Amino acid sequence: MLEFQHVSKQFGAFTAVEELNLSIPENEIFGLLGGNGAGKTTTFRMLLRLIDQTKGTISWKGERISYDSSHLIGYLPEERGLYPKMKVKEQLIYLGKLRGMKKSEVEKEITSWLESV
Q1: Do 82 and 76 form a contact (C-beta atoms < 8 A)?
Q2: Is 114 exposed, middle or buried (0-12, 13-18, 19+ CB in 10 A)?
Q3: What contacts 24+ positions apart, CB below 8 Å, involve 68-74?
Q4: What is residue 108's three-state secondary structure?
């Protein structure tokens, strides 16, 4: 089960997410709906450990989610996260390096991944 317990995120005096309590059972598909500024993107960024919550805990199967385990979470943003002025290979190297891979490791994997998709 994915659980948010009393999760809040503040940016200075601005509160983006306040006291979020949410439980999502394993093997369920879940989406967040809401208007602009409702805290959806901030919630997903906290879940993926791209930013830290100000307060509360986020856990999966009773264990706190860390950056090392966040790659196990699927996330489909509304907007694509690619850079239109970068070549695909450059973007893949960049994204791989963000996950701690060396450029040479990414380059070895690129062909097989592109063939599979």
Answers
A1: no
A2: exposed
A3: 71/99, 73/47, 73/48
A4: helix
Q: Evaluate whether 55 touches 6 at the Cβ level (below 8 Å).
A: yes
The pLDDT of 86-93, averaged and rounded, is: 87
Asked if residues 7 and 19 have their Cβ atoms less than 8 Å apart, the reply is yes
Task: Map residue 35 onto helix, strand or coil.
Answer: coil
pTM over 0.70: no
Distance CA 60, CA 72 (A): 10
The pLDDT confidence band at residue 78, using thresholds 50, 70 and 90, is low
Q: What is 44-80 written as a DSSP string?
A: HHHHTTSS--SEEEEEETTEE--TTTGGGS----SS-
- Residue pair 57/7 in contact by the 8 Å Cβ criterion: yes
Q: Which domains does the chain have, with CATH numbers?
A: 2-72 (3.40.50.300), 80-117 (no CATH)
